[in-house]
Amino acid sequence: MEMIIDFPGGSRVDAHFGPHTVATDQPPAASAPTPFAVFLASIGTCAGIYVLGFCRQRNIPTEGIRIVQNIHSNPGSGMVDKIDLDIQLPVGFPEKYRGSLIHTAELCAVKKHLENPPKFEVTTTIAESLA
Length: 131
Hints:
Elements: E1 4-9, E2 12-17, E3 20-24, H1 35-57, E4 66-73, E5 80-88, H2 98-105, H3 109-115
Antiparallel strand pairs: 1-2, 2-3, 4-5
Helix pairs in contact: 1-2
């Protein structure tokens, strides 16, 4: 998959892929989330996609289900030490599926990539003029 990253002005940096644009910005005048906030949100929303699929396959309504994500950072380094995902279920959610729902959320592709991170290669090229 190719993504095009551009600089639309101010401290905005946007990613374009397929028909989508993910806008990011930096404080103090942020008009969009920071790139790191988007990254963190991808963890919870990825788990959510798996939870949604699990429930749909079993005709379990998703009303009242939500995931609360808490980020714990190391005070010394400022780096994230731990991420908690609490799948909050409504009264009446079938008890027999609770363990399987946790297992399903743990299959999230974003989480799997963090457990086995890719290698990064950063290069530069001189772009040909588009004019």
